[in-house]
Design brief:
- This protein is of the alpha+beta class.
- Among the domains are: 15-143 and 410-520, GroEL-like equatorial domain (GROEL, domain 1), CATH 1.10.560.10; 218-250 and 268-370, GroEL.
- Helices cover 46% and strands 16% of the residues.
- It contains 19 helices and 22 strands.
- The strands form 8 sheets. A 4-stranded antiparallel sheet has the order 9-16-15-10.
- Strand 5 and strand 6 (191-193) form a beta hairpin.
- Helix 6 (119-140) packs across helix 15 (436-445), helix 6 runs antiparallel to helix 19 (501-519) and helix 8 packs across helix 13.
- The protein is elongated.
- The protein starts with a helix and ends in a 33-residue tail after the last strand.
- Molecular chaperone; assists the folding of proteins upon ATP hydrolysis. Known to play a role, in vitro, in the folding of actin and tubulin.
């Protein structure tokens, strides 16, 4: 009996689908995900209202944000959602395009699966199509001068024109360019690196108008000075000291007992604590600071000494905020007050000021000389609006960062995809063997982006697509595409509808590689045990007593 047991367990917990059925299921799941967010592509796109896990409401047309909130059971659908997340982390834009393109790539492959083409053949053709598509991108890309603000503005504007904040024109584009140029670091050879997560903080303050939003030449933190009555709330050209140690008496690592024999010993102990804090403050005050900021606690006695010397203090600041202030004003974060040097004092800030917005106080360290970190202050009517504006701003900053990193432009409005499609159709005649047909299908799949744009504009899709294909025949007129707002066929250079090279290249790579990966799956094996129905007995089954007749059916173990 013992030999049968493992087999029975396996049969119970392993479900297996295989072959063409799995391919069909994967393709259907991928198409379903693509169809969910297809309507959010382009300037005339629809918004989605989502209920998140906490019961809050999210209103957005950002592909990644929508898919993040979905709870899908099918593994292929889950892997499609991962694509959007990867795209968002890598280049910050094109999250919808990548899903639509991957869905279309799988859709056109279905016909070949039905005709018993081997998935490896289809994947080989797709990989060849990807290499040729990237070669076309290199050919039609034009360099851009990152110091030309008008060109940069046009590029960022066209990338966020498809978003909710597109209606506010230059505002978000201006904020994104100002923030990324402020926080950019030169790596040499004309390349600039921008760490958006570390050195650009987006602070959302409800109230006011969106037009009041601005990029601060410095840092803003949601803190007030420790003793508002005693300490100054406005200091011009402050000397700033940043600490990440507590200015209070050291507590024992774990439970500490002190045994006092005499009554005077208690007084001595208190005196020692006071002297220790006084010496800490004396070491700091030696450098004549105007503002002391620490990440840890600040005892009442330390507040008294600092306040007496006319020094303002802020305590329990986040590590990330402290790093930003250090980058903005040129200070160095110090671990122990004994190690303080004159070079650690930040003198780059022009103004320290505490302001009140609504019920909360915010401290500003602004007008810095050469800040390498900044804060974007967003104002708006409600939290929902501010959250959507922040998502759009993140995309805009990512686009600006991509341009600083790889200063090349491509036409937007589906023109790039149409050019790639036309070029691949031409090349398909020179592809030999059975790979020719999947290669040609991949060329057709690229047309999904302009077709979706037209559908979202509410135009006659077939007529307009035929006109566009005619203009792009033989790979000519690479810059002719669709103006997503009006639906006209125009030259993208004239309308300044551009795309970043990094975003387009990443979209093509991610979509095709993901399609190949899903096509290569021929088995889905689930090792999840079925949950017991509620009310079912959880008592273990009684062991069965072996009868004499069972011995004949027993599988004998060979010696």
């Amino acid at each position: 009996m013992a030999l049968h047991a493992p087999v029975l367990v396996l049969k119970d917990s392993l479900k297996r689908e295989s072959g063409t059925k799995v391919h069909h299921a994967n393709i259907q799941a991928a198409k379903a995900v693509a169809d969910i967010i297809r309507t959010t592509l382009g300037p005339r796109s629809m918004l989605k209202m989502l209920l998140d896990a906490a019961g809050g409401i999210v209103v957005t047309n950002d592909g990644n944000c929508i898919l993040r909130e979905l709870d899908l059971a099918h593994p292929a659908a889950k892997s499609m959602i991962e694509l959007s997340r990867t795209q968002d982390e890598e280049v910050g834009d094109g999250t919808t395009s990548v899903i639509v393109l991957a869905g279309e790539m799988l859709h056109v492959a279905q016909a070949f699966i039905d005709k018993n083409y081997h998935p490896t053949v289809i994947c080989r053709a797709y990989t060849k199509a990807l290499d040729d598509a990237l070669a076309v991108l290199d050919k039609i890309a034009i360099p851009v001068d990152v110091d030309d603000r008008v060109a940069m503005l046009g590029l960022v504007k066209s990338s966020i024109g498809t978003k909710f904040t597109g209606q506010f024109g230059d505002l978000i584009a201006d904020l994104a360019i100002d923030a990324t140029t402020t926080a950019g670091v030169d790596l040499g050879q004309g390349i600039r690196e921008v760490d958006i997560k570390k050195y650009i903080k987006v602070e959302k303050v409800p109230g006011g108008q969106l037009e009041d939003s601005k990029v601060l030449k410095g840092v803003m933190i949601n803190k007030d000075v420790v003793a508002p009555g005693k300490m100054r709330r406005k200091i011009v050209n402050p000397r700033i000291i940043l600490l990440d140690c507590p200015l209070e008496y050291k507590k024992g690592e774990n439970q500490t007992n002190a045994e006092l024999m005499n009554e005077e010993d208690w007084q001595v102990m208190l005196q020692m604590e006071e002297e220790y804090i006084e010496s800490l403050c004396a070491q700091i005050l030696k450098f004549k600071p105007d503002l002391v900021i620490t990440e840890k606690g600040l005892s009442d006695l330390a507040v008294h000494y600092l306040g007496k010397a006319g020094v303002s203090a802020i305590r329990r600041l986040r590590k990330t905020d402290n790093n930003r202030i250090a980058k903005a004003c040129g200070a160095v974060i110090v671990n122990r007050p004994e190690e303080l040097q004159e070079s650690d004092v930040g003198t780059g800030a022009g103004l320290f000021e505490v302001k009140k917005f609504g019920d909360e106080f915010f401290a500003f360290v602004v007008d810095c000389k050469d800040p390498k970190a900044c804060t974007v202050l967003l104002r708006g009517a409600s939290k929902d609006v501010l959250n959507e504006v922040e998502r759009n701003l993140q995309d805009a900053m990512s686009v600006a960062r991509n341009i600083l990193k790889n200063p090349k432009l491509l036409p937007g409005g589906g023109a790039t995809e149409l050019t790639v499609s036309a070029t691949l159709k031409q090349k398909s005649s020179s592809v030999e063997g059975v790979e020719k047909w999947p290669y040609e299908a991949a060329a057709l799949a690229f047309e999904a982006i302009p077709r979706t744009l037209l559908q979202n504009c509410g135009l006659n899709v077939i007529r307009t697509m035929t006109q566009l294909q005619g203009k792009h025949a033989n790979g000519e007129n690479a810059w002719v595409g669709i103006d997503g707002s009006s639906g006209d066929i125009v030259d993208m250079k004239e309308r300044k509808i551009w795309d970043s090279y990094s975003v387009k290249a990443q979209t093509f790579k991610t979509a095709i590689e993901a399609a190949c990966m899903l096509l290569r799956i021929d088995d889905i094996v689930s090792g999840i045990k079925k949950k017991q129905a509620p009310g079912a007995s959880s008592a273990p089954k009684q062991p069965q007593i072996e009868q004499e007749g069972d011995a004949d059916n027993e599988q004998m173990i060979p010696e």
